[in-house]
Structure prediction request, 156 residues.
Amino acid sequence: MLARLGRWLRAAGHDTLIPRPGASDAELMATARGERRLLITRDRKLTEFRDADQWVIWLRANTTEECARELGRRIRLDWLRAPFTRCLVCNTPLTQGADADIAAVPEHSRRVVNAVWRCPGCQRLYWHGGHVRRMRRRLESLAAHQRHEGDGQDGP
Ligand SMILES: [Zn+2]
Prediction:
């Protein structure tokens, strides 16, 4: 489930690793420390490492949506940092595609697409079609929700 949250973070433009299945707790902690990353987890055991308060964000929420809101609240996450600038699949920053790449867009979307982005890591192409629009609305709604909550808590 947090892998889905990870893709939302990438969609928002945040540098996000999604660990391989079966990675050990020690391995996860070593990566967090070594690369100075926050380790976002629903596994309470990870909070037992001595330096956990420095790296580990333990989420209590149960769905992807609730986890996203909890995380946003706790670290004041910017959901609109740089939307759709990273590959959702491999986390690599996207580059502008060539005109020739537009030919690879499925015909039914091509009429409305005038730019594509390429992932230099996995060569996947992205364009602003229905999927991106839906995800963008999601990010905007998370950001709006967070602003609203912030107003409630920090108001004058
Ligand atoms: Zn990629």
User: Anything to note?
Assistant: Residues 87, 89-90, 92, 119, 121-122, 124 surround zinc ion (CB under 6 Å). Strands lie at 39-41, 56-58, 95-96, 117-118, 125-126.
